[in-house]
Amino acid sequence: MIVAGNWKMHKNKEELSAFFNQAKNFAIPNGVRCIVAPSPTLLIKAVEAAKGSAFEVFSQNCHWENSGAFTGEISPLQIVDAGATGTLIGHSERRQYFGETDESCLKRTSAARKAGLEVIYCVGEQLSDREAGNTEKVLESQLKAVVSEFGSDDKIVLAYEPVWAIGTGVSATTEQVRDTHNWIRSYLKSQNCSWKILYGGSVKPNNFKDLASLDEVYGGLVGGASLEVESFQELLQCLTEK
Ligand code: PGA
C-alpha cells in the first residue's frame, strides 16, 4: 500500500522542516510506503529531512531529456542528483494547464525509468467524459501506449484520478472507485500488466478508509490532505487494517 502526498506548488523550507520534524515519528503501518512529492526547490531539502525516516521523496514531473534547453523543466538526472527516487507523470494539472499529452507522458516515463526512477503515472477522465459515458474509452486511450511499452515494468504504479474529484472536496463514491478500478484492472490484465492502482481526488481522512478497503485500491495519491502532518498521519492510520 502507498500513501503519496502531492504537495503541488505549496510549502517553503520552513514548512517542510516543520512537517518532517513531526512526520519522522509517525507510526507507519506494516507494508505501507509513504511518499511526498514537493516542488523542485524543496527536493534536496526533503531528501535530507526524510533521512532516517520511512518517507520517500518523489518529483512532481520529469523531462524526457537528461539536460538541455528546456526552461522551467527538471531532468531525470537532476531528480536522481537531488536524491529523490521517483516521479509523478501525467498529473491532470500538467495535462490541463501545461499541455501535457499521452505522447509527452510516454517520453517522460521512458526517461524516468531509464534513470532508475519509479513512476506514479496519472490518468483520469473529465466530468464531461463521465457524463457522456466515455470514462472507459478515455482511460483506455490514456493507458494504451504506456501500457504497451511499460506494462511489464513493476516500478510503475498507476494513479486513477478523476479530474472532477481533484481539489473539489467531492471524491468519487466508493461504487465509482470500485467499478472504475475493476475496469482498469481487467484492462491491465488483458495487456499482461499488473501495475498497482492508487486512487486520487479529494482523498481525506474521513473517506480514505472506505476507499482503501476496496480490493483494487492500493492506496492514494493525495493533494490537500497530505499537506498537514496530522491529516497525513490520519491517512496512514486508515490503512492499518488493510
Ligand atoms: P486532492 O488532489 O487530494 O487535493 O484532490 C489530488 C491530486 O491532485 O493528486
Summed up:
Helices cover 41% and strands 16% of the residues.
Low-confidence stretches: none
The strand order across the widest sheet is: 1-2-3-4-5-6-7-8
Q: With helices defined by DSSP (H or I, 4 residues minimum), what is the helix count?
A: 10
Structural class: alpha/beta
Rg over alpha carbons: 17 Å
Largest sheet, in brief, is: 8 strands, parallel, barrel
The hetero molecules present are: 2-phosphoglycolic acid
Envelope shape: globular
| Mean model confidence by pLDDT | 96
Number of strands: 8
The run of helices and strands is EHEHEHEHHEHHEHEHEH
Helix content percent band? 40-55%
* N- to C-terminal distance: 9 Å
* Relative strand content: 15-25%
Structural summary, described in words:
The chain is α/β, with parallel strands linked by helices. Helices cover 41% and strands 16% of the residues. The protein has 10 helices and 8 strands. The chain has helices spanning 13-23, 43-50, 76-82, 92-97, 102-114, 127-131, 135-150, 174-190, 205-212, 229-237, and strands spanning 2-6, 33-37, 55-59, 86-89, 118-123, 156-160, 197-200, 219-222. It has an 8-stranded parallel beta barrel, surrounded by 6 helices. It is globular. The model has no long low-confidence stretch (mean pLDDT 96). The site of 2-phosphoglycolic acid has 13 residues, from strand 8.
Task: Identify the notable features of this structure and list them briefly.
eight-stranded parallel β-barrel; alpha/beta; single chain; binds 2-phosphoglycolic acid; globular; 10 helices; 242 residues
